[in-house]
From TrEMBL:
Bilayer topology term: Multi-pass membrane protein
Compartment(s) where it occurs, according to its Swiss-Prot or TrEMBL record: Cell membrane
Region forming the signal peptide: none
Protein name: Hypothetical membrane protein
Keywords carried by this UniProt record: Cell membrane, Membrane, Transmembrane, Transmembrane helix
Domain (Major facilitator superfamily (MFS) profile): residue spans on this chain: 1-404
Molecular function via GO: transmembrane transporter activity
PROSITE patterns on file: MFS
Listed transmembrane segments: 21-47, 53-70, 82-108, 159-181, 230-255, 267-285, 292-310, 316-340, 352-373, 379-402
InterPro entries xref list: MFS, MFS_dom, MFS_trans_sf
UniProt cross-references to Pfam families, sorted A to Z: MFS_1
Organism field: Propionibacterium freudenreichii subsp. freudenreichii
Length: 422
C-alpha cells in the first residue's frame, strides 16, 4: 500500500472508529435511560425498533445523496449533527428535563441523519483504496477495529454510565468531533466520479433525480445473482444475530443487571471477534466463500439453540464468545465481495440497497425481543434466532453460484460467469 493511501486510510480509520465508539457508548446507555423512565423492557425494545425504522426509511435516499455529494461533506455533516444532538441529550439527562417523548424525538432525529449521511464514510473508503486485494485486506482490518471498539466501547460506556447517566452521551458527542477533524485531514478526492449517465440528472427535479439514482443502485445489485443472494443471506444472518443479542441484553436488563455487567459481555465478544478478525481476511482469500458462509451459519444456528436452553449470565459469556468467532467471517466475505464488485460511482447507492435488505428484518427485532422477554418467553426468542440462521443457510444452498463461490482471487471470474448466465 502506497504511503499516501496508507495515510488517508489511517485518517479514515480514525474517523470511523470514533463514530463507532460514540455509537457503542450511547447504545449501551440508551436502554438504561429508557428503562429508568418507563420500567419496561418492552418499551426499551420498541423505542430501539422505532430508531431502526427511521434509519431504514431514509437509507435509500441517503445512498443516492452520498453518491451526489463529496463523501467528505457527508462525514462532516454526520459528525456535526450527531455531536449537537448527543451533547444536547446529555445536558437534558443531567438537568433532569428529559422525558420519554423528548428522548424519542432526539433519537429519531439522530437516526434519520445517520441514515442520510452515515454511509458517506464507507463509500469514501473505495475512493481511498482502489485495489481489490487491498480492499479485502482493509475490510479484515476494519473487522479487527470493530472488535477493538466492542472490547473498549462496552466497558467505557458502562463505566461512564456509572459515573452519571448523562456522561455517556456527552462523551459520544465529543467523539463525533474527531470524525469532523479526521474527515478534513484526508487528502484523497472523496467526490464521487462523474459518470456520463448521471449528468442529465442535473437538469431534472431533485425528487426524480434521486429516484433514478436509487433505481440504478437497485438495478445493479439485482442484476448480479451472487450479490443479491448474499444480500438476502445477510438479512437472515443479521436478524438471527440481532434476536439472540437483543434477547440476551434485554433479559439481563429486566433482571436487574447493571450497565457495567452488560458491558463485560460485549468485551468478551469483542476480544474473540478481534482475534478472529486477524485471520478472517486470510481465510476468505484461501477458502471457498460459499462453503465458508454455510459452515459459519450452521455454527451460528447451533449457538442459538444452546442459548435457548442455557441462558444464564455465565452461559451467555460462552455463547457470545462463540458468536465472536464467526462474525468477522460474515462481514469480511459479504461486505468484501459486494463492494469489491461494485463500481466506485455506485458505492453509496449499492451500500444503501444492501443495508436496507440486511436490516429490513432487524428493524422489528428489538421490539419483538422486548415483548417476548417482558412476557417471559426468553427460550422461544432464542430459538427464533436458530430458525433465521437455518433460512440463511437455505438461501445460499439454493443458488449454485453463491454455493460454489470461491476465494477472493476467484471473485471476479465467478461474478462474470454468473452475470452472463443471469
Amino acid at each position: 500500500m502506497q504511503r499516501a493511501v496508507r495515510r488517508d486510510y489511517l485518517f479514515w480509520l480514525t474517523a470511523t472508529t470514533s463514530d463507532m465508539l460514540s455509537r457503542a457508548v450511547w447504545s449501551l446507555a440508551l436502554p438504561f435511560v429508557i428503562f429508568a423512565l418507563t420500567s419496561s423492557t418492552a418499551t426499551a425494545g420498541l423505542v430501539q425498533s422505532l430508531g431502526q425504522i427511521a434509519y431504514l426509511c431514509v437509507m435509500l435516499l441517503g445512498g443516492a445523496l452520498v453518491d451526489r455529494i463529496s463523501r467528505r461533506t457527508g462525514m462532516v455533516v454526520r459528525g456535526l449533527t450527531g455531536m449537537v444532538l448527543w451533547i444536547g441529550f446529555g445536558v437534558l439527562v443531567w438537568t433532569h428535563l428529559l422525558n420519554l417523548w423528548i428522548l424519542i424525538a432526539i433519537f429519531l432525529t439522530a437516526q434519520l441523519l445517520d441514515g442520510l449521511f452515515g454511509m458517506a464514510d464507507n463509500a469514501a473508503l473505495r475512493s481511498i483504496v482502489h485495489d481489490d486485494e487491498q480492499f479485502v485486506q482493509v475490510t479484515g482490518i476494519n473487522q479487527g477495529r470493530e472488535a477493538a471498539v466492542r472490547i473498549g466501547g462496552g466497558p467505557i460506556g458502562g463505566l461512564l454510565y456509572a459515573l452519571g447517566a448523562a456522561v455517556p452521551f456527552l462523551v459520544s458527542g465529543a467523539l463525533l468531533g474527531l470524525v469532523i477533524a479526521s474527515a478534513k485531514a484526508i487528502r484523497a478526492d472523496l467526490r464521487p466520479p462523474v459518470v456520463a449517465e448521471n449528468r442529465p440528472e442535473q437538469r431534472r427535479g431533485i425528487v426524480r433525480s434521486v429516484a433514478r439514482s436509487v433505481a440504478q443502485g437497485i438495478s445493479f445489485m439485482w442484476s448480479q445473482r451472487i450479490m443479491r443472494t448474499l444480500a438476502i443471506t445477510s438479512l437472515f444472518i443479521n436478524a438471527a444475530f440481532s434476536i439472540v443479542i437483543s434477547t440476551a441484553m434485554l433479559g439481563l436488563l429486566g433482571a436487574g443487571y447493571t450497565a457495567l455487567q452488560l458491558a463485560y459481555l460485549e468485551t468478551v465478544y469483542g476480544v474473540v471477534m478481534m482475534l478472529t478478525a486477524f485471520v478472517a481476511a486470510r481465510l476468505v482469500s484461501r477458502l471457498p466463500t460459499g462453503r465458508l458462509l454455510i459452515g459459519a451459519q450452521l455454527f451460528m444456528m447451533v449457538v442459538a439453540v444452546g442459548a435457548a436452553f442455557w441462558h444464564s449470565y455465565a452461559m451467555l459469556f460462552l455463547w457470545l464468545s462463540l458468536y465472536g468467532l464467526v462474525t468477522p467471517l460474515f462481514a469480511t466475505s459479504l461486505s468484501g465481495y459486494t463492494f469489491a464488485r461494485t463500481p466506485d460511482h455506485l458505492q453509496g447507492r449499492v451500500r444503501s440497497v444492501a443495508a436496507l435488505l440486511e436490516l429490513s428484518a432487524t428493524m422489528v427485532i428489538p421490539a419483538v425481543a422486548g415483548w417476548m422477554v417482558n412476557s417471559g418467553h426468553n427460550t422461544p426468542s432464542y430459538l427464533l434466532g436458530a430458525v433465521l440462521a437455518l433460512v440463511g443457510i437455505i438461501v445460499v444452498c439454493v443458488n449454485p453460484g453463491a454455493r460454489r463461490l470461491g476465494p477472493t482471487r476467484m471473485w471476479r471470474e465467478d461474478a462474470t460467469e454468473n452475470s452472463l448466465s443471469t
